[in-house]
Design brief:
2 domains, 15 helices
Length: 396
């Protein structure tokens, strides 16, 4: 048990991460049981170590993939920590716990140690796992995403830029963009962000090593995270990777399920499951069309990669239009339900219609449509319903 405390002290005391993610101040840390979900690499572990460090000796951090947990349980650690005056327990990567009943153990801790606060992290894939539903009455769940453009700028330049709401951007984008672009060369910074800005580890990576780390991240989702959530065979893992190769050559992609199933050598049902796994693992983003009813099983209308960093890591750097769409979809999906549009690119909350393009993009595809906007790249400021794409990166 002492080894857990030694490792925790070393990891938190040596932590050099003075900047906090947007979610940090939104979490009600006084709650007894908190789950932080998110894709691999977005900073869940760092956030939890930051909080543990603030608790001092009253908190202990443990990664649940440590060998310690092959012979010991979460409850044993909680009991020891509680009896020795601890008040906060931080458990990382719950989906990697080598025992099948982590949710039952957390329930028991919640019910049996009334003054012990537990924070745990898990893969975004846990959305597919019924074990989270079993805890729903007890746990407060938060989702952490990758860095927004606003956060990236604050991390690199300490500008103190504040969050902007979508309504404010739609109505006042020219004033907002003028103010920001007078301080920062936003177009150049935005290009850097698209290449290596979505994952916080960019701060200790060169562009080359950043790309390597993102590629390893993608492979780890398939090789480690997905098997930890749902049983799959090695052959299935290979076909998931093959699907990414096929899509990397075709995105943005309106899928022909028959030809795609043939290319990947799987059935249509298997292919639908692949889309779900890779979407929940934050590798792909699948969008239904505006007419699809909620919960109705249907093929996606459009397939994108989850964020531009994944695209660059997989070598999809020549498709500028797809990179734009990937970024816009990543940011817009944060504030509402995003769907593929028949006219235009995206429909948000079945109300706002967006067409994404370069600086010369016209309104021809969405002319005369209410609440329609052009999201344009390579412009510092917009005019009317034409909005600079980088400003979407200020919504969190």
């Amino acid at each position: 048990m002492e080894q857990i405390y030694e490792i925790s002290a070393r990891l938190t005391e040596d932590l050099n991460a003075p900047l906090r993610r947007y979610l940090y101040d939104q979490i009600a840390w006084s709650d007894k049981l908190i789950m932080i979900k998110g894709a691999r690499g977005v900073g869940k572990t760092t956030m939890m170590k930051q909080r543990c460090k603030e608790n001092g000796s009253y908190g202990v951090y443990a990664s649940l993939d440590q060998l310690f947990f092959n012979d010991h349980t979460i409850i044993e650690l909680a009991d020891y920590h509680y009896k020795h005056g601890g008040t906060h327990l931080y458990l990382d990567e719950v989906h990697r716990y080598p025992r099948p009943n982590w949710e039952q153990e957390l329930k028991n801790i919640h019910d049996s140690y009334p003054s012990l606060h537990v924070v745990f992290t898990g893969s975004s894939l846990l959305h597919l796992n019924s074990k989270v539903a079993d805890l729903s009455r007890r746990v407060a769940v938060y989702d952490l995403r990758g860095l927004s453009f606003r956060e990236y700028l604050n991390f690199t330049g300490n500008y103190g830029l504040e969050v902007l709401s979508l309504p404010d951007i739609l109505c006042n984008h020219r004033t907002l963009a003028t103010k920001i672009s007078s301080q920062i060369r936003v177009i150049g910074e935005f290009e850097k962000y698209l290449k290596k800005g979505y994952y916080p580890f960019f701060m200790d990576s060169s562009e080359f090593t950043y790309g390597q780390r993102v590629e390893r991240l993608v492979l780890s989702v398939i090789d480690i995270d997905i098997p930890a959530i749902t049983p799959i065979e090695y052959e299935t893992q290979l076909k998931l990777k093959k699907l990414l190769v096929v899509l990397s050559e075709q995105v943005p992609f309106v899928p022909n399920m028959t030809s795609l199933s043939r290319d990947v050598e799987v059935t249509r049902n298997q292919l639908m499951k692949f889309f779900t796994l890779l979407s929940e693992g934050a590798i792909l983003r699948t969008l239904m069309d505006a007419t699809t009813q909620p919960k109705r099983a249907s093929k996606p209308e459009k397939i994108l990669f989850d964020n531009p960093s994944v695209m660059h890591a997989l070598g999809i750097i020549h498709k500028t239009g797809t990179v734009r769409e990937s970024f816009a979809a990543s940011m817009l999906s944060f504030v509402g339900e995003l769907r593929a549009a028949k006219e235009g690119d995206f429909l948000l909350d079945r109300k706002y219609l967006f067409e994404v393009g370069g600086k010369n993009k016209s309104f021809s595809q969405i002319a005369d449509k209410p609440d329609s906007f052009v999201i344009a790249d390579n412009i510092e400021t917009g005019i009317g319903n034409k909005i600079p794409i980088w400003l979407l990166g200020f919504m969190y």
